[in-house]
Amino acid sequence: MTIDWSEQRILIFAPHPDDETLGCGGLMHRAKAAGSQVFIQFLTVGDTADLSPKGFSTANERYAEIKEVADHFRWDDWHIAFPGDEYHLRLDQVPRVDVCNAIERKSPLSIATIEPTIVLAPHRTSYNQDHQVTAEAVHTALRPSNTALRHHPRVVLAYEEAADQWRYEAAAPPNLLVELAEHDLDAKVTGMRLYGTQMHDHPHTRSELTLRSLAALRGMQSGVALAEGYHTLRWLA
């Protein structure tokens, strides 16, 4: 079964700026080229201790990066639900009902507002607490109910990141593979380079070689040159 990317309205939930590119950069580029709408709901961003030469990146630097990446991928819109240091890397301290409500209906890019045909979220087996909270909150927000009362996207997928494999209960291999052309992967790598505070040299989970190697592995597993892997949570045919 294939997806007609020309008719999709895609909503991606990213715990932090760069997660959407790490997990879905190739898909975003392929979908936008075909005519899809793409919306990015970030959960949080703040000042970050990192492995950059100065060892620190500010929220303002991260905002500037988002704007460059948004232009690069031609997103239709983006929004941050819980900005600030009181939330960044602390989403596990936010009442789950508040996170679910933002995702479901209270954010400008909520499921109720956008009415997406495809929703993508991080996988719950990530070691990162913000990723876990985002995955579980999206899962709750998309709980089964009467479709006459609440919007139900027909496709719900969990995206993968190389760092997720570190967790001892890492997920099984992806069960949905999206074929990428070379230019889709190049666009993904370029997008990550625009996140200058987050991109790293190899060996690192956010290095260019890691991104290209994972795409080659997923491609090989599906009999094509390059692919991105996803875990299917819902597929209504």
Characterization of the model:
It comes from Nocardiopsis mwathae. One of its GO terms (biological process) is glycoside metabolic process. Pfam families: PIG-L. By secondary structure, the protein is of the alpha/beta class. The protein has a single domain (7-235), classed as 3-Layer(aba) Sandwich (Rossmann fold). It contains seven helices and nine strands, in the order βαβββαβααβαββααβ. The chain has a seven-stranded mixed sheet, sandwiched between helices. It has a two-stranded antiparallel sheet with strand order 3-4. Strand 6 (118-122), helix 5 (129-141) and strand 7 form a beta-alpha-beta unit. Helix 2 runs antiparallel to helix 6 and helix 3 (96-106) packs across helix 5. The longest helix has 16 residues, at 19-34. The protein is globular. It starts with 8 loop residues before the first strand and ends with a strand.
Low-confidence stretches: none
Q: Within the largest sheet, what's the order of strands? A: 5-2-1-6-7-9-8
In whole angstroms, the N-to-C terminal distance is: 9 Å
What value does the average pLDDT take?
94
User: For the record, what CATH class applies?
Assistant: Alpha Beta
User: In the CATH scheme, what's the topology name?
Assistant: Rossmann fold
What's the domain count?
A: 1
Full CATH superfamily name: LmbE-like
Structural class: alpha/beta
Which percent band covers the strand fraction? 15-25%
Element-level helix/strand string = EHEEEHEHHEHEEHHE
